[in-house]
C-alpha cells in the first residue's frame, strides 16, 4: 500500500537515516538542478512538520496536502516542485531522466508515446499543465 510513498521518502532521504532533513531537501533539489535554494526556504519546508520528518510524518503531511484537492491540482502541484521558476514547463531531458530512472520506470516505448502525445517545443520544454489536463480529463484542452 505504501510502496510508492516509501520510494518517494527514500529518494528524498538522501543520507538514508530515516529522517528528512534540510540537508536532504537541499541534496534532492540539487539533484533535480535546483542549486540555489535559500536556507530560509528549506527551513520553511522542514518547519511544516511538528517534529522530525520520519516516514509516518511524511505520509501524514502528504495526506494533509491532498485533502480536498482536485486531482488536476494535485498533479500540477507535483510538477511545480520541478518548476521553481513557475514557467509551466520542464525540460524534456530532465523529465525523461526522472521517468526512466525513478520509482515505476517508464520503458522506451512509454517515453516514445509520451513525446508523441506531448511533443516538447523547439527549446526542449514540455508543457506539464497540458499533460496534467489530459491525465485528469482524458482529452486535450482547447487553446
Automatic annotation (TrEMBL):
<protein>
    <submittedName>
        <fullName>Myosin light chain, phosphorylatable, fast skeletal muscle a</fullName>
    </submittedName>
</protein>
<dbReference type="InterPro" id="IPR002048">
    <property type="entry name" value="EF_hand_dom"/>
</dbReference>
<feature type="domain" description="EF-hand">
    <location>
        <begin position="70"/>
        <end position="105"/>
    </location>
</feature>
<keyword id="KW-0106">Calcium</keyword>
<keyword id="KW-0677">Repeat</keyword>
<dbReference type="InterPro" id="IPR050403">
    <property type="entry name" value="Myosin_RLC"/>
</dbReference>
<keyword id="KW-0479">Metal-binding</keyword>
<dbReference type="InterPro" id="IPR011992">
    <property type="entry name" value="EF-hand-dom_pair"/>
</dbReference>
<feature type="domain" description="EF-hand">
    <location>
        <begin position="1"/>
        <end position="35"/>
    </location>
</feature>
<dbReference type="Pfam" id="PF13405">
    <property type="entry name" value="EF-hand_6"/>
</dbReference>
<dbReference type="InterPro" id="IPR018247">
    <property type="entry name" value="EF_Hand_1_Ca_BS"/>
</dbReference>
<dbReference type="GO" id="GO:0005509">
    <property type="term" value="F:calcium ion binding"/>
</dbReference>
Amino acid at each position: 500500500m505504501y510502496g510508492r510513498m516509501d520510494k518517494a521518502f527514500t529518494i528524498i532521504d538522501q543520507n538514508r537515516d530515516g529522517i528528512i532533513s534540510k540537508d536532504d531537501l537541499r541534496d534532492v533539489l540539487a539533484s533535480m538542478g535546483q542549486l540555489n535554494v535559500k536556507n530560509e526556504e528549506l527551513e520553511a519546508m522542514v518547519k511544516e512538520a511538528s517534529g522530525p520528518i520520519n516516514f509516518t510524518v511524511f505520509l501524514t503531511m502528504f495526506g494533509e496536502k491532498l485533502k480536498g484537492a482536485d486531482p488536476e491540482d494535485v498533479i500540477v502541484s507535483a510538477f511545480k516542485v520541478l518548476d521553481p521558476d513557475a514557467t509551466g514547463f520542464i525540460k524534456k531531458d530532465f523529465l525523461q531522466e526522472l521517468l526512466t530512472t525513478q520509482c515505476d520506470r517508464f520503458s522506451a516505448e512509454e517515453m516514445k508515446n509520451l513525446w508523441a502525445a506531448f511533443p516538447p517545443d523547439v527549446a526542449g520544454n514540455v508543457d506539464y499543465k497540458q499533460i496534467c489536463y489530459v491525465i485528469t480529463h482524458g482529452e486535450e484542452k482547447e487553446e
